[in-house]
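To close the section, here is one more complete example, presented without commentary so you can practise reading it yourself. The ligand is adenosine-5'-diphosphate.
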Amino acid sequence: MTATATSTPLLELQGVSKSFGAVQALSGVDFDVHAGEVVGLVGDNGAGKSTLVKVMSGIHVPDGGEYRFEGQARNVSGPNDPASFGVATVYQDLALCDNLDVVANLFIGHELVSGGPAGLVRELDEPAMEQRSADLLRTFSINIPSVRAEVGMMSGGQRQSIAIARALVGDAKVVLLDEPTAALGVAQTAQVLALVRRLRERGLGVVIISHNLADVFEVCDRVFVMRLGRIGGTYKIADTTPEEIVGAITGGQGTVRTRAAADAAAGRSAAPDQPASSSQEGIA
Ligand SMILES: Nc1ncnc2c1ncn2[C@@H]1O[C@H](COP(=O)(O)OP(=O)(O)O)[C@@H](O)[C@H]1O
Ligand SMILES: [Mg+2]
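Output:
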């Protein structure tokens, strides 16, 4: 399901820079995500991951660089622009309303209304919203006891799934997730990662910030490593190792060695008589 290198990216950034006063949060960042692809964004605290995602979602307007969507340069002056192309963001803090039910949370801010022409009696079209909620949850196999249950009573995994589903109520093509499993236990993380895979199966492009390399290796096709506001490297998950990614995150400092570096040092491209774990020596 990995997107081919020849297809046009859904979302592409070229040479994006952003500073906050004296802090250069992003410098010359190139990024792309294709339809049917899950791209990971990793890096140390302060590397610029959240800032980059906020540029993608239009919350931050970059100082320089180009924003392209479906192959065309786009003018982005606020979050409404990416939203109109089909870029949906799921925020780190979930931002669900605990005292409201699933339907109300899914449609908050873009409720369906029924009734006469503008100016006459218009009311919320609860049956239509309830139906669309149920359809959406079924399409993405999200298990919720009832769409009329308050979300405050639900598990972390269910809540994160609802937060992601909310991004899908509009017809999203790209979904941006900032640390979607940070607050979740093992079973609930698995639930959210399964949902991310279903987004990919449906042809969406997914960008996922994560501190957890196990999650990244489980669900991503490619990973961008950010370091001090720049892209330190891009790796296909099938062709890399967690050790290599850790090395890229830390800039190869200290004692971290990668398989590629170990192999290069030993003058080999593959080592049939050498266990792969030998390349992990020295990792902190
Ligand atoms: N709104 C802001 N105002 C000032 N500085 C910011 C703001 N947002 C981020 N920064 C700074 O930009 C840098 C990158 O931050 P961030 O994108 O949050 O990194 P990450 O998500 O990788 O931890 C940090 O030095 C951070 O302090
Ligand atoms: Mg962050």
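Once you have examined the tokens, check your reading against these statements. The first helix runs from residue 49 to 57. Residues 20, 23, 25, 43, 45-51 surround adenosine-5'-diphosphate (ligand 1) (CB under 6 Å).
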